[in-house]
Amino acid sequence: MVFDKASNCSVVPDATATDAGVAGAGTLLSFVITNFISLGLSAVIIILNLKKTTSAPISRKLLLSFSDQQIVTGIGIQCIGLSKMNTMVSYHFFIIWLLSTLSTATNLSTLLALVNDFKRDWVLRWLRQFFMFVNLLLGVLCGIFILQTVTKNLEPRLPISCVWEVPSRGASSNSALSIAGTIAVIAGNAIVFVFGTWYLHMREHPRWLKPVQIVGLLFLVASGVGATVRIFMVSQAFGSPPESVRLIGNGEKEWSYGQLLPLLLLILPIISTIEIARGEMRVTPSKADDDDTKPLFNDTELQYQPSPMFGESNGLFRK
Questions:
Q1: Which residues cross the membrane (predicted)?
Q2: Using only C-alpha atoms, what is the Rg of the chain?
Q3: How many domains are contained in the chain?
């Protein structure tokens, strides 16, 4: 009996249906590849800023494109998980939380690397901050479900929503490590987000920014690597899911157009960046005296653009 209807926490299904939409090979690889490309580009940009050798406009454009794509897919897959929590088991929900961790790491690393660029345009700054805040909130909410699942040792074949209804079965052998790791990831992502948001609304350029950028990036790299290792270990597509889940079939290993599409979409940011680099796509200047040869990004002269909606001044809000 496969659990495919409304949540019934009193009956434990005999098996679990596969869900290639959230745990298929193509879906997992698209998140992992985007995360590692973005972390690598962020590291390159931060290192170049330390040396002050170049503004790296192409790398910045490419990083921004991958980050935009990751934040949309990250919010989308978390919304799917929460909307299906009456039928989705903890195995698939845990994979969604790992993917949301990759999405958060990608976007926070982008914020650390491109913080000065977002300061120059208040629309892009607030739009980026809004989507990152939504992504962080969804990630924290999914993390709370995971914590509750570990604490109660939820029956693996029950829907994740049952975690609030069934009694605890006693802590598992590795529950302490799982709880500590989950809390560390949630707290770390929240701290980096709060710091990035705070600095995003400051006019000053503090001297301690570079060390904080490096420390934050190292944490996000560790978070991304840890989430990737767990994905490859527990997913049916690349590893071995827990035997207690009892997945039916090998649907998450099979390749189809739906699994190939997320990987094909990764080519779009690269194509757009090549077109910009070759001069085939130009943006109309907002002023008549703008020079097309002027660098897109200039870290030596930071021009903070206040928000007319919130009346920003010196990085704070006027009352």
A1: 28-50, 89-114, 126-147, 176-200, 212-235, 255-277
A2: 22
A3: 1
